[in-house]
Every structure is written in C-alpha cells, then in structure tokens.
Amino acid sequence: MSRQTIQRIVSGCLLALLLAWPAMLHAQEATPPAKAPASANEETQAPDQVAVEPTAQDAQIAKRLTSILEATGWFANPMVAVRDGVVFLDGESGTKDQREWASNLARNTQDVVAVVNRIEVTPRSVWDFSPAAVELRSLWRSALLAIPFLIFGAIVLLFSWWLMELIARLLNRFFRTRTTSPLLASVAARTIAIPVFLLGLYLVLQVAGLTRLALTLLGGTGIVGIVLGFAFRDIAENFLASLLLSLRQPFDRDDLIEVADQTGIVQQMNTRSTVLMTLDGNHVQIPNAVIFKSTITNFTANPNRRSDFIIGIGYDDPILQAQQIIAAVLGEHPTVLQTPEPLVLVDQLAAATVNLRVYFWYDATQYAPIKIKSSLLRLIKRALQDAQISMPDEAREVIFPSGVPIIAMGQDSPQVLQPQQVTPARPQSSPRDGAAKQEPVSSSAEGDLRVDEQEMRAQAQQSRILEEGEDLLNTR
Predict the structure, then answer these.
(1) Percentages helix, strand, coil for the chain, rounded to the nearest 5?
(2) Average pLDDT value for the chain
(3) Which residue, 449, 452, 468, is CA-closest to 460?
(4) Residues 102/77, Cβ–Cβ less than 8 Å
C-alpha cells in the first residue's frame, strides 16, 4: 500500500468523524418525548403531578395552568376556565403534540376531575423558518461541544500515523538486510505497521461512542473488499505477480531478455508492469502477470552465448580440408572463445552442396552476434576461395551424368555425333599472386564488432520514466 493511499484513508477517517460527531452528540443529549412538539431541544413532557395548595380552588387551578401555558410560548391566546374541577382549555397551538401536551398537563393537575380541550391547531405558515433556525442553533451548539473531541481525535490519529510511519521505516530497513526484494520488505513492514494506526482509529471511535459504527464499517469494508477484488482482479493479479517476480528475480535492470514475443533491455518493474526498451528503441510495457506466466529468456544472465551458421561446399571438394580451414579461421578470430571449443560439423547432403554447420561461442556482453557472424562469413569465404574449394549455388548448377549429345545440322540431313562427357563447370577463384592478403577481422561496414547494448542502455537513461512508483529491480 503506497503512502498516498494511506494518506487518503486518514483524510477520509477525519472527515467521517467530523461529519458524524455533531449528530452523535445531538442524539445523546436530546431525549425526545413520546409525542414531542416541533422543537426537539425543549422539554415537552408534562409533569406527573402539578402541586398547588391543598383543596385547590377552581380559580387557583385556572391561574396556575394559564401561567404554565403562557410560559411555554407554544400557544396563542391561551385561556383556561375551571368549573367544579372540570378544566376547559381554549386557544391556538402549532401542532397536535402541543395540544395533547396541554391536555396531559391539565389532567395531571391537582383536584382536576376532567379536561375539555378546545384548543385549535393552526397550521404553520410555509414561510415560517423558525424550526430551521432552532435546528441550526442546535447544530451549532453541538459543533462547539464536539471541538474538543475533534482535537483529541486529530491528535490521536496524527500520532498513530507518525508512529506507523516510524515503525514501517525501521522494519523496512530490517527486512531489506534479510531479503533482496524491496517490494516484499515494504509489504511486510506495512503489514506489521498498519495495525498501529488502526488501533489509534479504534481508540478515537471508542471515545466518540461510535464503536458500533466502527464494527458496521469494518463489516461493510469486508464486503466492499470482496466486490472490489472481483472488479480489480487484474490489478491484484499483477500486484501479486510483481511480488513473486521481485522475490525470484529472474532478471535485473539493464538485462537483455525475451518474453511474450518481445526482446529488449529491462528498464523498470513496478507493481503493475515491466518496461522494456526494444532494440529498435521503443518502450514496451508488459503486465507482470503475463511475464510471470510466460517463458523468460535472459540473454545477460550468462555472458557466453553460442551461435551457428551454415557453409555449403561442392561435392568434389575435400570435406576434411574445408573443416580444417574453417576451424583455423575460428581459432584466429579474436571474438570467438576457444572454450567451449568451436565445431565444424557436416550438417546435410543437400541438392548441390555439402552443408557444414559452424558452431562457436562468444562473449555476449562484449560483442554483437550479427557482427561476429558477418565477419566470420566474410573471412571463411575468402579462406575457402584461396584453397580452391568451391561453394556452388543450387540454382545454377546442372549435372549430366551421361554426357550431352551434339547434333550437327548439314545440308542433306542432320548428323548425330557421339555423346561427349561434359564436366560441369565449378565457380572457382583463381589463386592470387603470392601469399593471400591479410583479410581484416572487421570492416568499416561491420564496425568494431562490439555489442550495441551499451549504447542502448545509455540511450535508455536519457528517456523519460513512463510510470511513477518505486522500481522493484536491483541495480547491477
């Protein structure tokens, strides 16, 4: 998990606490009655018994109830009349709950026998914003009360984050000394350090009284994680493949490899893909899951590499002499390794030639195979021509075993002459005067026979980085 992802999680937690805290405090402080009036923050429960003087008179009951109704401010023109213990209530109220509350108040008053409620409910105007103002004042008060808790939560979360980062850095250094995979070290360190931050988050939720909410979020997160796992299966597969590749290290940066029908120099491997620069200078990104499932050919792992090519000689030429001449050229060439020993083997009896297959080893980190092959073919051709060994072309050579009949056309009738044995001509090169001139090992067209990978690597260092993120490969 990257640092940016964890920072987004911390920001989301702080924002969730900021939004949930005022509602929680408001829910804890406000205790609505069974039938509450419009204002939820004001006490609307009628008392069980309203005490007046013993054997209260009707006038005293009416006076007491009138003062209480006026004190609430919920009723317009409240009027209370009492006759023989029967209370008559008149006036206007804003809600049915207020009208019912007035009935309960009168019913619970001392020496009241019955209650006749004639209060009319007047609908509130659509332009009455007083409930909204009351609710805003309540939210503002809850927000002020939540400030200490928010400060405490922010301090705990920041401290948990700092402690998690410290533990992650220390563990990362510890694991890097014991494994060659930087990704494995980072994942192991984060796996151990993240519970420290989760412990701080649980502490904040516990103090805020949101433990049940935390459990609900954790359960929902598990379900969401399963859904996201199916949705982002390819991303998870590439991440696991990058982890396994960083453990096994089948290649390093600047290695020349062939994978998924692509050949190039490794530039970078991140948690999603591996970047190659082909020998044509193009950057190719291959998903790590594809690389993990494919066959990888690493041309740089072993510096010595073998190559081969075919030379065809005529059927009338001595094969052993041609082998010795080719072997001599291989032994004198500076780029051909003598261990393992180069070989010149008879490979095929073709239509017009005896094909000799030449095997040789060379240092792939120093020399390019196509340049070495060009130099060897040129030198071997010159050496075989100097030794009068032909190299026929199948497309031009025709052999007549019984000779070629010759027909002479006369004036009277044609005459058939006796067949004559015709020996097929062989393309030969006349020997040069004196000793053969020394053929250069490399021509100006072939260059210095050295590998071009160094130039490719230098060019790759000047190219821009295709993807941001930590490189998971080792540097030679």
Answers:
(1) 45, 20, 35
(2) 75
(3) 452
(4) no
Residue 464 has pLDDT above 80, yes or no: no
pLDDT at residue 70 above 50? Answer: yes
Q: Which residue has the tokens 């009349």?
A: 81
What tokens were used for 56?
A: 């209260």
CATH architecture of 58-121: 2-Layer Sandwich (3.30)
What per-residue confidence (pLDDT) applies to 40? 36
pTM score: 0.46
Residue spans per domain, the chain:
3-21+146-231, 58-121, 252-301+453-476, 304-395+437-445
- N-terminal to C-terminal alpha carbon distance within the chain: 27
b (16+ CB within 10 A) / e for 140-157: eebeeebeebbeebeebb
CA-based nearest residue to 325, from 354, 358, 363: 358
| CA 469-471-474 angle, 5° bins | 170
Domain 252-301+453-476 has CATH 3.40.50.2000: no
Instruction: Please choose, from the candidates 204, 285, 268, the residue with its C-alpha nearest in 3D space to the C-alpha of residue 469.
Output: 268
More confident position, 27 or 270: 270
Q: Using CA atoms, how far apart are residues 452 and 45, in angstroms rounded to an integer?
A: 91
Nearest Cα neighbor of 92 from 69, 109, 115, 114 is 69
304-395+437-445 to CATH, choices 3.40.50.2000, 3.90.1570.10, 1.10.10.10, 3.30.70.100: 3.30.70.100
pLDDT of residue 31: 41
pLDDT digit string, tens, across residues 320-368: 999 999 999 999 999 999 988 999 999 999 888 999 999 999 988 788 8
278 vs 398: which has the higher pLDDT: 278
For residue 38, the one-letter residue type is A
